[in-house]
Amino acid sequence: MRALIVGAGIAGLVAARQLGVAGWSVDVLERAPGPRPEGYMMDFFGPGVRAAERIGLYPYLAQAAHRVRAAAYVDVDGRETARLDYEQFSALAGGNVLSLLRPDLETAALRALGDAPAGGIHLHYGCRAARVVQRPGAVALVAEDQHGQSRWFEADLLIGADGLHSRVREGVFGPESGWLRDLGMRAAAYIVAEPEINAGARHRFVLTDSIGRTAAYYGLRDGRVATLLVYRALPGDPHNARDRLRRHFTGLGATVDRLLQLCPQEPYDDVVAQVVMPRLSHGNTVLLGDAGGAVSLLAGQGGSLAVAGAAQLAASLENLEDPGWIPAALAGFSARWQLTVRSAQASGRRAAASFLPATRAGLLLRRWVIRSSSVPPLDRLIARRIVASLAK
Ligand SMILES: Cc1cc2nc3c(=O)[nH]c(=O)nc-3n(C[C@H](O)[C@H](O)[C@H](O)COP(=O)(O)OP(=O)(O)OC[C@H]3O[C@@H](n4cnc5c(N)ncnc54)[C@H](O)[C@@H]3O)c2cc1C
């Protein structure tokens, strides 16, 4: 059977590998010209870990993982105001937490494609899905390549794994305004070469202890620094992402100012939002990962759910003998998977209220919560809150 996957992010690549291993012929369309280098550090725990172990992806991920010892909040002078020990965080999250840079997670998923029989999976970078054509019992898609040429694809199954602003979702279920739940923040991420800052932030996430915005950075093992900036957009903000970030973050200390200086012209910068859908499938089309169930970085499980959802979808499809059974298999997957997505979304929404404190009282409360996490009797009480609200 033939599958067409739009989006070579984590969800799309893991679904491609699983279907390829099950003997499907798979085409993956990705609008970027190659694997995307952007993104910050993601905590990988919960359903994704169990799924990765089950499908044999875990060794690839463990190899790519970074060693994080602590998350440290600092003031404008770089002095630590609160610290969370990562072993403690890992224990609160039920153990087995991997810290993975988003592009490393994507690279690991790409490497794992080699587990499928040769010739079964075709990756088309620089190929943007433009229009879905629904047909009884099959799907077709018009795409555009890097040279502006139209290309026509047909398959038995279409998987929309094209992220928060999914074109497949728009074509099959309608405009994104009906499904996107904006959590009132934006998140930007980029990676820069800065050995000096790297040395001071090795093995620890450093986060600014600030009101209304949070800048976070982490020293990677190759000497570069991964930067994450979370903020609330304001009316009159500059259109250009770099100018906007400079407007919001200048003055949070010398390190942040230096990272702003090095910010690329157009870093990854998007709304922090969830996608809430009544169902994920329609006929032979299904939505996967952020496209159908984004939980937001506040839930801390985007990568984990991308892997777990892809594994579950492929498991629902692997024993089908006839393409006519696809719609029922997709509907079954949708009903089961939505339960997991809803629960992660609820935790993301709870975290949204406390993630960017709006006042000094809110900031002091967050400090107290983090400091109290080392007091054993309070561990259970605040575990959920810490896990949900720590910056990724
Ligand atoms: C560049 C980038 C940086 C990110 N950084 C972070 C981060 O720092 N922290 C965090 O928690 N989450 C981040 N995310 C989100 C995180 O990757 C997802 O929440 C999670 O991994 C689920 O992934 P996904 O595969 O469902 O979607 P995504 O990772 O968004 O992947 C979707 C893919 O589809 C492609 N695509 C979109 N439209 C089309 C189209 N019309 N035709 C063909 N291809 C298309 C995109 O280029 C992208 O590669 C980032 C996402 C991206 C794309």
Automatic annotation (TrEMBL):
Domain FAD-binding: 3-317
SUPFAM superfamilies recorded: FAD/NAD(P)-binding domain
Organism superkingdom: Bacteria
Protein name, as recorded: 2-polyprenyl-6-methoxyphenol hydroxylase-like FAD-dependent oxidoreductase
Pfam family of the protein (one): FAD_binding_3
Naturally occurring in which organism (per UniProt): Glutamicibacter protophormiae (Brevibacterium protophormiae)
